[in-house]
Amino acid sequence: MTQVRTRFAPSPTGFIHLGNIRSALYPWAWARATGGVLVLRIEDTDVERSSQAAVDVILEGMQWLGLDHDEGPFYQMQRMDRYKAVLAQLVEQGWVYPCYMSMAELDALRERQMANKEKPRYDGTWRPESGKVLPAVPEGVQPVLRFKTPQGGSVVWDDKVKGRIEISNDELDDLVIARPDGTPTYNFCVVVDDIDMRITHVIRGDDHVNNTPRQIHVFRALGVEPPVYAHLPTVLNEQGEKMSKRHGAKPVTQYRDEGYLADGVVNYLARLGWSHGDDEIFSREQLIAWFNLDHLGRSAAQFDEAKLRWVNAQHMKVCDNGVLAGLVSAQFASRGLSVPADERLAAMCALFKDRCSTTVELADWLSVYFVDVQPGEADLAQHLNEVSRPALIALRDRLAELPDWDAPSINQAIKNTIGERKVKMPQLAIPLRVLVCGRAQTPSIDAVLALFDKNTVLKRLQGV
Q1: What does the angle CA 377 – CA 378 – CA 383 come to, to the nearest 5 degrees?
Q2: Which family would the database say this protein is a member of (predicted)?
Q3: Crossing angle for the helix pair 262-270 and 18-34, to the nearest 10 degrees
Q4: Considering the chain, what percentage of its residues have pLDDT values greater than 90?
Q5: Fewest CB atoms within 10 A around its CB: which of 190, 278, 339, 416?
């Protein structure tokens, strides 16, 4: 069997968002599932709209998500000599001809066609045919080059998502494959790239379906059978519109900054158009083991940030505590706090991670260990009273005398105080949480206190 070679080929004309990056995830998963190759190609021929900043977000986003490529990145603007050489070959073989129709003439033609209720399209004025007399070549006009689309018959392919697609050649006019300055156009460059890079599977958005018959014609003119195509349905935003920067889509890297785990985002994205039975939560390794093109969905998927947060929360629960410590340390650094990603921070992550959907939330919880807390007036009024106050003073004195500062010793001190003062656990534990942590709810209070410096706890209990 031929080795699978697939590609991700974004245009750097805007910051890549989750809808775009899904078109990297599926080719990556297919390459990894089959022992194949993923090629990264930057389609930067739109010079005016392309930017290095957009390229950087593509590379940074893929790196963060762990979507490693095997070859590339290749840049189309660096391959112009190759395109022009193949263009010359097609001219020589009679597949390409110069067209001198001006934009004004083309616009007038389209207006006439629309007035006659016809599909607007180039009419083949300059297409050479046996026995046909072409118009006189106008002076001083640089022609475009057009591809001679076969007449009659149709283009057929079996799409791995959409099934059999057939498009009549009579629906297609002669494609412009080079501009007046000789620069090759997108649909032509893509075919040359896919041939040179030996691409076997093209997995891309279904906004490219209309390009596919034209590209197939160019493949065949060059004597190469086209790859297998899989055209993915659009990802919609939460309002049901196509996900785009214009409609509020965020750059992929913003999800990293907002505290999402790469594995959580990969899991969520994979389910936006592919499924493995009813499995909702799975690891990267499971995705690779299960992935195939037969279970790609046919209908548009809708992005749901609440669902993304839920999926990410499940990955937070099973994430290695040392890994989380590194991510939380980075979150603190972005807030101007230097917190080492050591065993203590890892232990804090282990204690609090089940309560959190993102590493931003986890850093919020853990900030009580590193910055002063200000208990809310309402919490103090509700929980600090004539019953709890004497018990807290007695507990503070007991804690001050503890030779070992660990959870079992703290737990015993709390139990002894409850027994001595004849109070219930909530009457002591809740105001204790409020004074030390600034909030009425935390994980097990003995485990929470054990991760504090002892003097910090005693200091926060001074104001009882």
Answers
A1: 100
A2: Belongs to the class-I aminoacyl-tRNA synthetase family. Glutamate--tRNA ligase type 1 subfamily.
A3: 90
A4: 85
A5: 278
Distance from C-alpha of 317 to C-alpha of 349, rounded to nearest angstrom = 10
Instruction: Report the C-alpha gap between 1 and 412 in whole angstroms.
Output: 67
More confident residue, 106 or 156: 156
- DSSP letter for 150, please: P
Backbone angles phi, psi at 97, to 5 degrees: -140, 155
Which residues partner with 288 through β-bridges?
Answer: none
In terms of Cα–Cα distance, which of 202, 193, 291, 161 is closest to 8?
202
Q: In this prediction, what percent of the chain has a pLDDT beyond 70?
A: 100
* Cα 293 from chain centre: 19
Return the higher-pLDDT residue of 26 and 105.
Answer: 26
Sole residue written with tokens 């599977």? 201
Q: Name the residue among 142, 198, 146 with its Cα closest to residue 176.
A: 146
Section 104-108 average pLDDT: 86
Question: Which of these, 416, 359, 365, 362, lies nearest to 391 by C-alpha position?
Answer: 416
Angle at CA of residue 440, ends 435 and 443, nearest 5°? 100
User: What are the tens digits of pLDDT across the range 239-254?
Assistant: 888 888 777 789 999 9
Q: Which residues pair with 6 in a beta bridge?
A: 38, 201
Does the model's pTM come out above 0.85?
yes
CA distance readout (Å), 358 to 255, 349, 426: 10, 12, 29
Q: Is 245 annotated as a binding residue?
A: yes
The span from the CA of 418 to the CA of 274, in Å, is 55
Whether residue 222 is predicted with pLDDT greater than 80 in this model: the reply is yes
Picking from 107, 184, 93, the residue whose alpha carbon sits closest to that of residue 145 is 184
In the numeric block, which tokens belong to residue 146?
């057009």
- CA–CA dist 19, 21 (Å, integer): 6
pLDDT in tens, 170-204: 999 999 999 999 899 999 999 999 999 999 999 99
Q: Does residue 463 have a pLDDT over 80?
A: no
Q: Rounded CA gap, 224 and 210, in Å? A: 20
Mean pLDDT of the chain: 94
Taking residue 26's Cβ as centre, other Cβ atoms within 10 Å add up to 24
Residue-range domains of the chain with CATH: 5-81+185-236 (3.40.50.620), 93-178 (3.90.800.10), 372-464 (1.10.10.350)
Residue 164, classed as helix, strand or coil, is strand
